[in-house]
Amino acid sequence: MTDPAADSSIRHPIRAVAFDLDGTLVDSAADLMHASNALLAELGRPPVDLPAVRSFIGDGAPKLVERVLAATGGVADAEEGARCLRRFLAIYEADPSAHSALYPGVAETLEALAKAGLRLGVCTNKPMGATMRLLEDLGIAGVFAAVVGGDSYPTRKPSAEPVLGLLERLDVSPGEAVFVGDNEHDVAAARAAGVARVLLVPYGYARVPLDGLPHDGILGGFADLPERLSCRAP
């Protein structure tokens, strides 16, 4: 017989699942590349390719733009950098979903989890304006009880602040939540927030090997998530 005192899944049943966005739910790299190259064209600079942009994703729009500019000559000062960021956001937020798509199994799996009574949320470093437009355009906004973006709090992932803020909005404790992401920042933020489990998808925009991260399991694909959530050990 299982000892309830030794079984965290009994003490803290999972009530919510928090998700990263880019690289976990949505492959958005192509739209980020197009917006970056539109900005670079206005600046008279050469374009960046898709592999480069994929390596720039994960730390929010300011870092993405900073890396794009650094790869094509840099910026003269902070004022120019801020102007380029504003212009990038204007370009990107006007249509963030033209070349983006949900990863296989995402829509169906999210619907199944919501129907099972789990509270779902998104914690992303992408700005809220583009986040909500992207979720709506791809038809999954309605399954989420709460969403926080890179401009929702003073800090972004890998800080625990946005994860804790999301869980507060979902009205669950960290011990009642699982975080699903694709990279090192997701793991660091979720661990710092004290969530019950951290699961990773095998695709996405990680810049370090997933096997070296302190996660609780790597999914075979997004559709594997319901089965993994039903298990006491990943």
From TrEMBL:
The active site is at D20 (nucleophile). It comes from the Bacteria. SUPFAM superfamilies: HAD-like (SSF56784). The keyword Metal-binding applies. Its cofactor is Mg(2+). Its EC number is 3.1.3.18. It holds the Pfam family HAD_2. One of its GO terms (molecular function) is phosphoglycolate phosphatase activity. Keywords: Carbohydrate metabolism, Hydrolase, Magnesium, Metal-binding. Mg(2+) binds at D20, D22, D182. It is an enzyme of class 3 (hydrolase). It catalyses: 2-phosphoglycolate + H2O = glycolate + phosphate. Pathway: Organic acid metabolism; glycolate biosynthesis; glycolate from 2-phosphoglycolate: step 1/1. Belongs to the HAD-like hydrolase superfamily. CbbY/CbbZ/Gph/YieH family. PANTHER family: PHOSPHOGLYCOLATE PHOSPHATASE (PTHR43434:SF1). Specifically catalyzes the dephosphorylation of 2-phosphoglycolate. Is involved in the dissimilation of the intracellular 2-phosphoglycolate formed during the DNA repair of 3'-phosphoglycolate ends, a major class of DNA lesions induced by oxidative stress. This is Phosphoglycolate phosphatase. It comes from Azospirillum picis.
